[in-house]
Structure formats: C-alpha cells, structure tokens
Amino acid sequence: MNLAIRGLAGNLGERPADTFFADQHKDLKADFIMANPPFNLKDWRSDAELTDDPRFTGYRTPPTGNANYGWILHMLSKLSETGTAGFVLANGSMSSNTSGEGEIRQQLIENDRVECMIALPGQLFYTTQIPVCVWFITKDKTENKVKGYRNREKETLFIDARALGTMISRTNKELTKDDIALIADTYHAWRSDETELKARVERGECKVEHYQDQAGFSKSANIEDIKAHDYVLTPGRYVGAADVEDDGIPFETKMRELSQTLYKQMNQSKELDKTIRHNLEALGYGE
What we know:
By secondary structure, this protein is α/β, with parallel strands linked by helices. It has eight helices and eight strands, in the order H-E-H-E-H-E-E-E-E-E-H-H-E-H-H-H. The model has no long low-confidence stretch (mean pLDDT 93).
C-alpha cells in the first residue's frame, strides 16, 4: 500500500507472506537498508521455528519473546559485502540481556558489525513517548577510496542526541534541521577520509571539518572500550558529561543569590497557603 500510494514499484515476493517470518527475498543483497520495524514484537515465532534459518547463521537464534534481534540479523543478512543498514529500535535493544539478546549483541560487536549508535530524545513519535535509538550496522569497515571511507575497523561511533529536539506540542518533540545536520555531519566526519570530508565541506554538505570527540555528545570507542562496558551500546555510557563552562561567579555570591530566591519563593508559598485556606473556609470546608 505504501509503495502504491507513492507511485513506487517493488518486488513483494512470489506469494503473499510475512517475509520476516518466511523470507521472500532469499537472494536479495542491498547496499543500503533503512527500516523502522515494530518495537519489541512478541511471539513472532515458536520455540521450534526458524532455529536453522540461514539468516541467523553464526549467531544465536533470536528469542521468541522479542523480535528486535531477529530484525537486526534479518537486515544484516540482506546487506551486500559493503552495505550499510540504518534502523530505529527501542532503547532496550542497546542493553537487554534477556533470553540471549546480550549474547547476540556481543557477537555483532566482536564481528565488527556495529558502526554507529545514536540515542534520540523521547516524544518523537505520536504513538509512543518512549525514547528510541538508531543503529547503523555494516559488513565492511575497511578503507574504501571509491566511497571515501577511512578504515574504521574495531571502532564504533556513539552519539547521545537526547538533549536535542524542540517541543512542538505538549506531548511531542521534533528534531530541527540543525539537529539533524549536527548528527549527520558528526557521523560523516567520523566515517570519511580526509579527501572526502574536505570535498563535502567545500560542497556545503558538511559543516564539521574534522571529527573529534565531544564530551556529552559523541565518542569514538574501540571494541575494548565496549567490552569494558559489558557490550552495552548505550551512548551515554561512552560520551561522558558535557563540559560546563565556568561563569566566573564566586560560590559565595551564587549561594547568597540562590538562598534569597529560595526564601522569596517560600514566602510566596506561605501567602498562597493562606489564600487557599481562606477560600476553603469561605466555602464551608475549613478545618
């Protein structure tokens, strides 16, 4: 339906079926994959089903109670040898150890498939308020002069974008164009070789002239760093806290100003209490 509405052609398989459960594209190899699979899908297979599925070869079979890692391995199996996949998942996918998910994540990391992890703010979706993350996985992190990629073997980029975004309603937030550009530019600057990055900057496609870790926002970590964090991929564990600029105001001065503000608010609270009590008594609900 989505394809038809947008006037796009697509191969949906030989027969009507759930291609996630019954692979309809066994020979498909894609250079790029983008996806937003359903979060935490339960009971997507029985214990006896898909235990020898070729898409999961080399990895533990994803658990029946949550399809997150089924989706990850499904997309990984569809990548070409130099392909990259980017997809949105629930935050739990970055740290869950339930039913062997931690073991699969460790295998992905040790096989050097995880390229970038991005933590996004909550309230981005109309249907759920939970914060989400973006995974980028690839089969090849070696230098690629044709694509302008540097050698990123044994490296993973972590971006903590939870502080970004602007509220557009009482319940929803959106990432601005500048927010998206900051995330994308950081990723491209980290991945690109010097020649490619310089060309991107000259063409106005990237504002970051060279990648460097930014406390509280981004960190390029190696596999040993990730191992030290028990193979958890939550960006906040790696980027650290943002640097706080000293405003030069002495502590005693700050404390005096804060105390005066607090006492003023406490006095206002007392006056409000009196007003509320008076109104309740006037309505016949006094103590």
